[in-house]
Amino acid sequence: MQGGDLSSEVLPTVLVVFETVIATPPAAGPTRRWRKAKPPAADAFAWDQTAEAALWRLTLRADVNVELVTFMGEEVASSIREVLRTQNFPARTAWAADSPEALARQLAYMPYVSAVYDGDPVRQFTYGNRTRIVTSHNKQFLGAF
Known about the structure:
With 145 residues, the chain is an alpha/beta fold. 26% of the residues lie in helices and 19% in strands. The protein contains four helices and seven strands.
Protein backbone atom coordinates (compact mmCIF):
# COMPACT_ATOMS: atom_id res chain seq x y z
CA MET A 1 0.00 0.00 0.00
CA GLN A 2 1.42 3.36 -1.04
CA GLY A 3 -0.17 6.71 -0.35
CA GLY A 4 -3.37 5.11 0.91
CA ASP A 5 -3.91 3.11 -2.29
CA LEU A 6 -4.75 -0.55 -2.06
CA SER A 7 -2.18 -2.94 -3.43
CA SER A 8 -2.51 -6.35 -5.02
CA GLU A 9 1.01 -7.28 -3.94
CA VAL A 10 1.24 -10.80 -2.53
CA LEU A 11 3.08 -10.96 0.79
CA PRO A 12 5.81 -13.56 1.12
CA THR A 13 4.83 -16.64 3.08
CA VAL A 14 6.92 -18.86 5.32
CA LEU A 15 5.83 -22.44 5.90
CA VAL A 16 6.56 -23.99 9.28
CA VAL A 17 6.34 -27.75 9.76
CA PHE A 18 4.09 -28.24 12.77
CA GLU A 19 5.32 -31.54 14.18
CA THR A 20 9.04 -30.73 14.04
CA VAL A 21 9.19 -27.01 14.86
CA ILE A 22 6.02 -25.88 16.64
CA ALA A 23 5.04 -28.89 18.71
CA THR A 24 6.32 -32.18 20.05
CA PRO A 25 4.16 -35.28 19.67
CA PRO A 26 2.34 -36.56 22.76
CA ALA A 27 3.90 -40.03 22.49
CA ALA A 28 7.33 -41.18 21.42
CA GLY A 29 7.74 -42.81 18.05
CA PRO A 30 7.47 -41.86 14.41
CA THR A 31 4.53 -39.74 13.31
CA ARG A 32 3.84 -42.00 10.34
CA ARG A 33 2.38 -44.62 12.69
CA TRP A 34 -0.59 -42.30 13.36
CA ARG A 35 -1.77 -42.49 9.77
CA LYS A 36 -3.09 -46.02 10.44
CA ALA A 37 -4.66 -45.16 13.78
CA LYS A 38 -6.60 -42.08 14.77
CA PRO A 39 -4.18 -39.12 14.82
CA PRO A 40 -3.89 -37.09 18.02
CA ALA A 41 -5.64 -33.75 18.32
CA ALA A 42 -3.50 -30.62 18.06
CA ASP A 43 -4.11 -29.66 21.68
CA ALA A 44 -2.57 -32.99 22.77
CA PHE A 45 0.79 -31.77 21.47
CA ALA A 46 3.18 -29.72 23.60
CA TRP A 47 3.35 -26.37 21.79
CA ASP A 48 6.77 -24.71 21.90
CA GLN A 49 6.70 -21.24 23.50
CA THR A 50 10.08 -20.26 22.00
CA ALA A 51 8.88 -20.93 18.46
CA GLU A 52 5.65 -19.05 19.13
CA ALA A 53 7.55 -16.00 20.43
CA ALA A 54 9.87 -16.09 17.42
CA LEU A 55 6.90 -16.23 15.03
CA TRP A 56 5.26 -13.30 16.82
CA ARG A 57 8.49 -11.33 16.41
CA LEU A 58 8.63 -12.26 12.73
CA THR A 59 5.04 -11.29 11.94
CA LEU A 60 5.25 -8.00 13.82
CA ARG A 61 8.56 -6.85 12.32
CA ALA A 62 8.18 -8.04 8.74
CA ASP A 63 5.28 -8.22 6.33
CA VAL A 64 5.10 -12.01 6.11
CA ASN A 65 2.38 -14.60 6.30
CA VAL A 66 3.00 -17.69 8.41
CA GLU A 67 1.35 -20.99 7.56
CA LEU A 68 1.69 -24.26 9.44
CA VAL A 69 2.09 -27.51 7.49
CA THR A 70 1.61 -31.00 8.85
CA PHE A 71 2.39 -34.38 7.34
CA MET A 72 -0.03 -36.21 9.65
CA GLY A 73 -3.16 -35.76 7.57
CA GLU A 74 -6.11 -33.45 7.16
CA GLU A 75 -7.65 -34.38 10.54
CA VAL A 76 -4.63 -33.01 12.39
CA ALA A 77 -4.56 -29.94 10.14
CA SER A 78 -8.21 -29.29 10.96
CA SER A 79 -7.45 -29.67 14.65
CA ILE A 80 -4.53 -27.22 14.33
CA ARG A 81 -6.79 -24.71 12.56
CA GLU A 82 -9.24 -24.97 15.46
CA VAL A 83 -6.45 -24.22 17.95
CA LEU A 84 -5.30 -21.28 15.79
CA ARG A 85 -8.86 -19.98 15.75
CA THR A 86 -9.41 -20.23 19.50
CA GLN A 87 -5.95 -19.21 20.73
CA ASN A 88 -3.85 -16.25 19.81
CA PHE A 89 -1.16 -17.91 17.68
CA PRO A 90 0.70 -15.99 14.95
CA ALA A 91 -0.14 -18.23 11.99
CA ARG A 92 -2.68 -17.54 9.31
CA THR A 93 -3.74 -21.12 8.62
CA ALA A 94 -2.69 -24.77 8.76
CA TRP A 95 -2.90 -27.37 6.04
CA ALA A 96 -1.78 -30.91 5.35
CA ALA A 97 0.70 -32.17 2.81
CA ASP A 98 0.98 -35.84 1.97
CA SER A 99 4.75 -36.00 2.55
CA PRO A 100 7.82 -33.75 2.54
CA GLU A 101 8.47 -34.81 -1.05
CA ALA A 102 4.91 -33.85 -2.06
CA LEU A 103 5.38 -30.46 -0.40
CA ALA A 104 8.65 -29.99 -2.31
CA ARG A 105 6.80 -30.67 -5.57
CA GLN A 106 4.04 -28.20 -4.61
CA LEU A 107 6.61 -25.46 -3.95
CA ALA A 108 7.22 -25.19 -7.69
CA TYR A 109 3.72 -23.70 -7.96
CA MET A 110 4.03 -21.50 -4.88
CA PRO A 111 6.40 -18.66 -5.82
CA TYR A 112 5.21 -16.58 -2.86
CA VAL A 113 6.75 -19.06 -0.37
CA SER A 114 10.12 -17.68 0.70
CA ALA A 115 11.16 -20.36 3.22
CA VAL A 116 10.18 -23.71 4.69
CA TYR A 117 11.21 -24.14 8.32
CA ASP A 118 11.64 -27.79 9.26
CA GLY A 119 13.16 -29.34 12.35
CA ASP A 120 14.20 -32.64 10.76
CA PRO A 121 17.86 -32.45 9.63
CA VAL A 122 17.31 -35.40 7.28
CA ARG A 123 15.21 -33.06 5.09
CA GLN A 124 18.02 -30.53 4.72
CA PHE A 125 17.93 -30.54 0.91
CA THR A 126 14.30 -31.53 0.37
CA TYR A 127 12.87 -28.06 -0.31
CA GLY A 128 15.81 -26.70 -2.30
CA ASN A 129 17.06 -23.22 -1.50
CA ARG A 130 13.96 -22.51 0.60
CA THR A 131 14.93 -25.05 3.28
CA ARG A 132 15.69 -23.71 6.75
CA ILE A 133 16.58 -26.35 9.36
CA VAL A 134 15.48 -25.39 12.85
CA THR A 135 17.28 -26.75 15.89
CA SER A 136 16.89 -26.06 19.57
CA HIS A 137 19.84 -23.65 19.28
CA ASN A 138 18.40 -21.46 16.52
CA LYS A 139 14.65 -21.77 17.17
CA GLN A 140 14.51 -18.30 18.70
CA PHE A 141 15.76 -16.82 15.42
CA LEU A 142 12.94 -18.07 13.18
CA GLY A 143 12.61 -15.71 10.27
CA ALA A 144 16.10 -14.26 10.70
CA PHE A 145 17.73 -17.03 8.67
